[in-house]
Structure formats: structure tokens, C-alpha cells
């Protein structure tokens, strides 16, 4: 094996990738659109299967041993392997091919008809999963093509693990990985998901927050009642829910639920320094998002991402606007999302919220309440625990393999932003347990890609940069 | 003119009505269903016009001079008159032929396909406006048929004023009535709307609460943001709305908005006595509505109906349930309904709520906020004032004409419940001003008719009893 100065082959790979994406720009754009046109929501298992089969073929076309890793009742994991004779390391690339649910009426263009549009003078493609997370898959595939076109060969064994159930909380991922431990082990797992820094600089992230949630429904009368004849006598569940939720946070977004911030593992000096060194994009983001203020007692966004969060994803009671009628509604529902940091357990975090609800006089049950339950208890809350939940994971930045990743990304992209954790969630713990490895996250999407909402998009330059980054990582020793 | 003991002709009329509805039960039920099958929502002006034309014809068939009273851009008032030679009084019967909006998916049977079902062993017809308020119109028409079949002639002049815009807040009623003051004047207006007492006993009501409302929208980021990447930094509008609404009431439903209860005209001794004498149905209602508690510091429902109210009609932010996604929503909206009692003005009551919102740090505007407004102000609330609003009205129970009404209803139905006000709202003030008269309300619907919500229905026995009540009133001196 030829020896190289650290970063030199990775830099060559990135240069080859840049030449390749310039030369094949139109055909690559069309290829990406083709992938995005495959519907990939959890409600459509047939569509998810078509995605998986397409990706197996794409891996095989690039010389990988590819297959589906399947268990009944879950979307398959797409798996591929490229063995390198004499390799001492195995690098695993994780991404996911499923997307968040879509509410088509909220989109300017149909979510599965990829549409090119110019934003701030640059082309973007609009479609579900453009940023989250088909961009990463397409970049990994294209990086293989670029290396081959330049006559470059990987130095490590490469493995690809592309999940189909990430947006549903990865309920079966650990089970599937466990059943194929020999296939999916690696010296490092590269998690290719999420957005790069808001400044546009390439990010390397060493962990992800955990995620859990609760759905809370509270009750008024058995059916909607005339607000004139019964209002302010029959309890209003929208008001009850408002009062319950209002007590969970102060006006600055600080969570008031007892023990909510207990047990948090402190950041190391290196992690604190990385945050201090990262760009401060807060003022730009406030402007971009039309925010007249932010929560968090003046803390920076990056600091807040290293704390647990509680967020109302949605709230509903009866109808609003032109469809509103003069009723005391029968029920009111809110969905809560909670992010966790290292040191917290998602079951315990759920329980803190449930304890809080009980402390407010609610009889909390795990099923839709019966007539008897509603009549016998002054306040009833049906709480559904999100079971597809997981805890936070953080890889120390000073591990040798972590340092190799930093070197490869720097070789491809120059200055990078190092972050202890991302705000979003990836089931890193399940991966680390099953693959007996550590994880480092290298995202490629633009931060303003509208992931998880309508009009998701990818800035195409992020895709081309991402191909370079992936080529460098595929060239790691 | 033959002289009668007070109540005797009214009793004869009610007896004739009972015989008539027994003899023609099936054909009357079919006729009522035919009327209910005519769609009558504000969003469908063509449907409303068909209702109005049908009702003009129905009046003409019964010997009335009938016509539409119209102004551009509003549903017509259906007007009819039956003159009685030698009459010294004119009695005006008000009802409305329009219905609340429908959300068809919430109905067990289609709202405009009237369906007979047995509830508690008795037949009911399910359709929009079955109780609110076509029952009253059909009872008034059928009472005329019953009188004619028994050879009985009215003693007063009878006038019928059936509105087509009540559920939209009667925005044009006063204007239409003002343009036809000579047609619509009467010694008393009988308001035939709303439900009878929950005990099933016939009610006579001497007023109605006023009604107004507000729509409040508060703002977070310009579009939904990923809750992991931005939650607890980007303000959550659902939480903001919850905190804003939560501060408007205490846990017992007592409104905390400053001055909300100011200026209320006290009840007279006779009115207080009437409330004390009325059935206490609270325990039965709690059971029926599956309520484990009620708001109002233990006050009776009838007492609370003589206070102003604030009710959340609906509340929404992003999506809940299976459609919930992990976002910081962009906005949150609530619709509020406020009932007023005598002594309060609806514009002032709206202003109290707006002042409260401002006191919570909101920049309150009357239009959808611009980017600049959202960026410049820490908290922005778009508040839409309900302009189709009106104040409360109460007729003294001891007026001679009020006493005549009580006597007629007692002659038809025996013991009656006398109430100073109904909880619901009818634009009585507009009627009283335009017709230079006083109003007394005689409802006929069952209290559990689901008016204003899905699965509205009428207990048919209430219809037959209502025909008797209307026949007695049509026979008043």
C-alpha cells in the first residue's frame, strides 16, 4: 500500500468529484430529480419499496454487493458493500430514503414532481426529501462514479446502510441491524443527514439529540355544545389545554416542568470551545425567519441545541376561521416533541411531563376515556407516549477516527464547523449498539431546505459540494 | 267581538292543534323533512333563496299576503301578513330559515338528508336546522292549518318575519326592517328560536344575551421550522397562543380580563325569583354531557347565563395526530365568542380583550402582518373583530303584553318556566328598534338538539307541542 500524507488522497478525491459534477451537471440534476419523483412517505409502503429497489440497483450498477435487509412489517434497509483488498478500516455510510408526511395542499409545487427554481440567484430543486435525506444518498452514489471516472480506488472497505423508516422514528432499525451485525459493523459510521451550518460552511457533528413525544387530549362535553347556552358552565377543553400547556414554559421558552433539565452531561472543554468558535448566525436567522425575538433568555441557538427542548408540534380544537362555529368544543389535542441531550432518558422525560399533567389535577390515562371516566373525574387527559423514541448520543471529538474524519472533510472543503451535537435527531444509539462503533455526522443540505415541512428543497450547489465531501470520505484510509 | 275568559280561546287553539298533528302525523313529518332537505348555509346563497321562495309560497297557500323583503347582497327576509277585521293588536312571529355552517364529515348522516332515528325511545329527525330554527317556522305554518281545520279564526293581526341571515349575525336585518317599518311593527314580537328548558318544560324567555367575537392569530417563524434544529429558540406560536388564552380565565372559568364584568345591569326581584323557581337541571346535564365538573365557582347554569361569557370556539396551529410533524409552527389561531348581558356594549367588550392582549406585550394589528411588522415586534397579534355583533336585550316580565303571552303559553302547555334571558343570542335590539316594539321569546326545540354542531336534530314531540304553543299564540287577543 502506497503511503500518503494525511488528507492528500482525500483532496484528490474531492478535486475529481468537482470535475465530475461540472462535466455531468445536467445529467446528474436529472438523475437526482428521478430519485425525488419516487414517493417515499410512511403511509405508502409500496412507494417506499420502489425506492428501495431502485437504490439496490443503483448500488449494483456501481459494483457494490447490494441487498435489502428486511423484517416483516417494516420498510427494508438498503445495504451495499464495496470491499477493498488490504483495507484495514471499514467505513459505513448511513442515510435514509424515506421522507416526512406531506400535506400536498400546503406545497407551491407537488411534493413528488421535482421542480427547479431559482432562489437568491441559485438553482434549487423543490421536492419532498430533496434535503432530508435523498441528497446524501445521491451524493454518495455520485462520489463513487466520480472516483471511478478519475481512476481513484477507495482505501477502506465501504458500506452503505440506507434506512426507510427514519422519519417514523426508526422503530425497527435496531432490530434489522442486530440481525445483520456482521454486515453492518465498521470502524466508524458516517451519518449523512441534516443541514450544514447556516453560514453555508461545511459542518461535522459529533452527536445528535434524542427525541421523544407525547400526544395530549383533554375533554369538555361529550359533543360540541352551543356556546351561548352552555359556555362558561361546561368546561372548555381548548381553554383547559391552553392553561395546561401554558404552565409548561415561561414567556422566554424556559421549560418549567419539574426536573426537566436534570441529569444533563456537561460539555467538555473541547466541545465548549467548538461552540465558541462556530459562526454566530443568530441575527441572520432572526431576519430570515421574520422573528421579532427569540426564546432562551438571550442564549445563542448553538447553546440551546445542547439543552433539552419541548415543542408544540400542533394544537387543535374544533374549527377556526370561516369554519368556526359558536360551540364549546368536545376535546382539544396537542402533539409535543421533546429533544434530549446526553444524560437524559426518553422514558423519564415523558414521565416528567405526565407527572406535571397529573400535578395540574388531571386523571391521566393511556386510552380514549369512557363516559364513566369522563364523568367521574374533573379533568381527564389521554396521553399517548411516542414509543419510537431514543436517547442522545455524543462521540468525543478527540477519538483518532473522529480526527481522521475531520481531516478528510477539511481536505475536501477547507474550514469546517465542528459541533458537539446537532439539534435534530438521528437514532445514533441504535446504530452504535448494533454496529459496535461510533458515529460522526456529516450533513450536506442547506439549512433553509424546509425539511419536515412544505416546499422542501435542496440548493444544488450543496449537492455538488456534498459529492466532493462524500468522495473524500470514501477515500479515507 | 265575543268576550272570552283569559286563555280560553288559546286553550281551544292548542287542543285543535293537538288533534290536527295526531291526525296528520305522517304527512306533517314528511313536510318537515322536505323543508329540512333545502340546504340553507350562508356559503350557498342559491340554496338560501330556494328556502325563501318555498316559504313565501307556503304562507300564500295559507291565505297570507306574502313577499320577500330584500336588499342587495343579503338573503331576503320572508314576510307574511294575515289581517283580522276588528283586531286591536298585531302579533309578529320571528324565526330564521338559515342554518349554521356544516362540516359534513362530522355528521353521522348527511346534514341535508333528513333522517328519522329513535333516541331514548322517541323519534327524532336529524338534519341541519331541525332545531335551529326551521322547527319554529314549520310549527307556525302548521298551527295556521290546525286553526283553519278547526274553524278557529285569529283574534289579532298576525305577521311573520323569517330571517335568512341569523346564523351569520344578522348583519342586514336592521337595515331590511328599517326599510319596511310599516309592515313589521307589532304590539309584541314573538321570537321563536332556541331550545326549551332542559327539563322538557315549555319556556318563555324575556331576553337574549348579546354576542360578539374576535379571531386572534399570533406568529412564530415565517414558515414551519424543524423543531430539532430551531425549537426553544424560534418562538412557538402555539405556546404563545396557549399562554395568551390561559391568562384570560382562571381554572374555574372566571374571566380575568380587566373590567370584563363591569356595568352589568342587575336583575329585578321578579327576575331573580323566576330563576329561583326554574328547574335545576344541572346534575342531569352534567351526566348527559359527561362532565366531571363545571366552571363558575359552583354557580347554577341559569345564574351564569345572566353573566357575560368568553368561549374559545376553536383553536389551531399546524397539524395534530397522524399528520403532526416535528415543526415549530408558523402561526396559531383561536376564535373567541363572547356573550353579553344588559349594560354592556359589544364594541367595548371587544376592546377589553384587545387591551388585555396588548397588556401581554403584543403589537395588535387589524391585518395580516407584513415581514417588517413581524420582524420589528417581539409579539404580533392579528385580531379580527366580529362586526356582526349586537347587545343584550331584556323585556320586563310585568309588561301587560308579556303577561298576555305567559297566559297564552300556560293555556296551551300548563306550567311554564320563565327566564329573564336565554344564554344564546338573537338580534332582539335590532328588532325592537325597527319595529318599535318589545320581544318575548318562545322556543320549541329540545335542549339536546345539537344546534350549531354536527348531528343537529329535533325530537318530533317538541314539534307537535310547538304547533300547540304556536296555535295558542296565533289565537292571542
Can you give a write-up of this model?
The structure is a homodimer of 477-residue chains. With 477 residues, the first copy, chain A, is α/β, with parallel strands linked by helices. Chain A has two domains: 8-208 and 393-474, Zn peptidases (Aminopeptidase, 3-Layer(aba) Sandwich), CATH 3.40.630; 210-264 and 307-385, 2-Layer Sandwich (Alpha-Beta Plaits), CATH 3.30.70.360. Helices cover 34% and strands 21% of the residues of chain A. The first copy, chain A, contains 16 helices and 20 strands. In chain A, the strands form six sheets. The first copy, chain A, has a six-stranded mixed β-sheet, sandwiched between helices. A five-stranded mixed β-sheet of chain A has the order 12-14-10-16-15, covered by helices on one side. In chain A, helix 1 packs across helix 4, helix 1 packs antiparallel against helix 16 and helix 2 (25-36) runs antiparallel to helix 4. The longest helix of chain A has 17 residues, at 45-61. The first copy, chain A, is globular, with a radius of gyration of 24 Å. Chain A starts with 7 loop residues before the first helix and ends with a helix. The relative contact order of chain A is 0.21. The interface between A and B is large, with 103 and 103 residues. Strand 12 of chain A pairs antiparallel with strand 12 of chain B.
Number of domain modules of chain A: 2
> Number of helical runs of chain A?
16
Given as residue ranges, the uncertain stretches of chain A (5+ residues, pLDDT < 50) are: none
Q: Which fold name corresponds to the CATH topology of the largest domain in chain A? A: Aminopeptidase
Estimated share of beta-strand residues of chain A: 15-25%
Level of helix content of chain A?
25-40%
Secondary structure: number of strands of chain A: 20
Report how far apart the termini of chain A are.
11 Å
- If you average the pLDDT of chain A, what whole number results? 95
Shape of chain A: globular
| Protein chains sharing the most extensive interface | A-B, 103 and 103 residues
Reported CATH architecture of the largest domain in chain A: 3-Layer(aba) Sandwich
Classified in CATH, the superfamily of the largest domain in chain A is: Zn peptidases
CATH domain class of the largest domain in chain A: Alpha Beta
Q: From the helix content, strand content and strand pairing of chain A, which structural class follows?
A: alpha/beta
Biggest pleated-sheet summary of chain A? 6 strands, mixed
- What's the alpha carbon Rg of chain A, rounded to whole Å? 24 Å
Spatial strand sequence of the major β-sheet of chain A: 1-2-6-3-7-19
Amino acid at each position: 500500500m502506497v503511503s500518503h500524507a494525511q488528507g492528500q488522497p482525500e483532496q484528490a478525491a474531492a478535486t475529481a468529484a468537482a470535475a465530475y459534477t461540472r462535466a455531468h451537471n445536467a445529467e446528474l440534476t436529472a438523475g437526482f430529480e428521478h430519485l425525488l419523483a419516487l414517493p417515499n412517505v410512511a403511509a405508502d409502503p409500496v412507494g417506499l419499496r420502489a425506492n428501495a429497489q431502485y437504490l439496490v440497483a443503483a448500488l449494483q450498477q456501481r459494483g457494490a454487493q447490494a441487498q435489502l435487509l428486511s423484517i416483516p412489517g417494516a420498510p427494508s434497509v438498503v445495504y451495499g458493500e464495496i470491499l477493498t483488498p488490504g483495507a484495514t478500516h471499514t467505513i459505513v455510510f448511513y442515510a435514509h430514503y424515506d421522507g416526512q408526511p406531506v400535506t400536498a395542499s400546503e406545497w407551491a409545487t407537488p411534493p413528488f414532481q421535482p421542480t427547479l427554481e431559482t432562489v437568491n440567484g441559485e438553482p434549487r430543486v423543490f421536492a419532498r426529501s430533496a434535503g432530508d435525506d435523498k441528497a446524501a444518498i445521491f451524493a454518495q452514489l455520485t462520489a463513487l462514479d466520480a472516483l471511478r471516472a478519475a481512476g481513484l480506488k477507495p482505501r477502506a472497505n465501504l458500506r452503505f446502510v440506507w434506512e426507510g423508516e427514519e422519519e417514523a422514528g426508526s422503530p425497527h432499525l435496531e432490530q434489522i441491524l442486530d440481525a445483520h451485525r456482521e454486515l453492518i459493523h465498521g470502524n466508524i459510521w458516517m451519518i449523512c443527514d441534516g443541514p450544514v451550518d447556516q453560514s453555508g460552511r461545511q459542518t461535522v457533528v459529533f452527536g445528535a439529540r434524542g427525541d421523544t413525544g407525547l400526544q395530549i387530549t383533554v375533554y369538555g362535553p361529550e359533543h360540541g355544545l352551543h356556546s351561548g347556552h352552555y359556555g362558561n358552565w361546561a368546561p372548555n377543553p381548548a381553554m383547559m389545554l391552553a392553561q395546561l400547556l401554558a404552565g409548561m414554559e415561561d414567556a422566554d421558552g424556559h421549560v418549567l416542568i419539574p426536573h426537566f433539565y436534570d441529569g444533563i452531561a456537561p460539555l467538555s472543554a473541547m466541545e465548549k470551545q467548538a461552540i465558541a468558535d462556530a459562526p454566530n448566525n443568530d441575527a441572520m436567522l432572526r431576519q430570515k425567519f421574520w422573528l421579532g425575538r427569540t426564546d432562551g433568555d438571550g442564549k445563542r441557538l448553538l447553546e440551546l441545541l445542547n439543552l433539552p427542548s419541548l415543542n408544540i408540534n400542533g394544537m387543535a380544537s374544533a374549527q377556526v376561521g370561516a369554519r368556526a362555529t359558536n360551540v364549546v368544543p368536545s376535546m382539544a389535542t396537542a402533539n409535543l416533541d421533546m429533544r434530549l441531550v446526553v444524560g437524559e432518558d426518553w422514558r423519564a422525560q415523558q414521565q416528567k411531563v405526565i407527572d406535571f399533567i397529573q400535578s395540574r389535577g388531571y386523571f391521566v390515562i393511556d386510552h380514549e376515556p369512557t363516559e364513566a371516566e369522563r364523568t367521574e373525574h374533573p379533568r381527564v387527559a389521554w396521553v399517548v407516549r411516542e414509543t419510537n423514541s431514543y436517547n442522545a448520543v455524543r462521540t468525543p471529538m478527540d477519538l483518532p477516527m473522529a480526527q481522521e474524519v475531520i481531516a478528510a472533510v477539511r481536505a475536501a472543503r477547507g474550514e469546517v464547523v465542528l459541533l458537539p451535537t446537532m439539534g435534530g435527531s438521528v437514532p445514533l444509539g441504535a446504530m452504535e449498539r448494533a454496529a459496535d462503533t461510533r458515529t460522526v455526522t456529516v450533513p450536506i443540505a442547506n439549512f433553509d431546505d424546509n425539511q419536515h415541512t412544505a416546499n422542501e428543497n435542496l440548493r444544488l450547489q450543496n449537492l455538488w459540494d456534498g459529492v466532493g465531501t462524500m468522495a473524500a470520505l470514501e477515500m479515507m484510509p
